[in-house]
Known about the structure:
single chain; 326 residues; alpha/beta; 7-stranded mixed sheet; 5-stranded mixed sheet; 20% strand
Amino acid sequence: MTRSKQLTVLLLAAALSAGAAHAQYASELGKLAPEALKGGAKPQPAQLKQIAPDLYFFWNDGSSNALFMVTDEGVMVVDTQQHPADARRLLGLIRKITDRPVKWVVVTHAHGDHFLGNPVFKAEGATIVSHRDTRGMMSKYYRDEVERRQAYFKRYNLDPGELQMVLPEVTFDSRLTLQLGGRTAELIHLGPGQNPGDTLIHFPHARTLFLGGPFARRNWSNYSFTPSVENWIALLRQAAAFDADTFIGGHGDVATREDLLEYAQLHEDFLREVKAGIAQGKSRDELADTIRMPQYSHYRNYHRMRGWVYALHHLLTTGKPMAPYP
């Protein structure tokens, strides 16, 4: 066995061992609120949208978003989808546009629907990049992330046996600039939003900002990972101040600055409701039974609100998210 393969095996074994030692937060949410994991609107068909001469957005409403930049020197991919089969579909879309090699892959955050396609792009020779905390979360919660994707794999007849953990080779702390084919991509960490390690990617030439985990246009997001909803809100408002015209989240369609500010307001309103209920002495289940927020009922995943209440109640009463890091 080569040294590289030995390292891969050791990393995977460490991740599986670590996962066994941690609470299965995805399963726990399911036990607490099984009805919260059912229902919801039917996804829109997946679409590839060209948002600049060299920038393409893959809106995969039934799973997660991705983006890629095509240059004369090669391709940069942002997020790799939820399964190697999904990543192969994304690679097929890239190959319809260019035969240039995939040079860089950026993983914006440590949710499996954004990185479980990594092996496909690693096999293409890409260098995978993330924030150091994203890499740490990927390693710590790999088993949990695979576990909470099982329904998706079953629904689309995807083989879990294809999965393997491929971690980023390059990490950064606050900022990293990548150059490719005369284009610049600025990787920016403004602190934790939805997750430790949340990475924004700014493409100045296209006046586009990809936000990954902290933003999902008209989609409720999971609160199991955030160490601070206040930081999350502040991050969204900072992002809205960027010199950009096009904003893209990890889920949902192409967005505007106003969409980001609306999303920040949603979190602010939800946080205020849960805090007020706790101050009134309400239990977690009493909060879940009474909080409705109908002004956001048009958001995808609204039907999962009970789970979001549980996760936020846990954060506010214990000081730690359901999936803490480190």
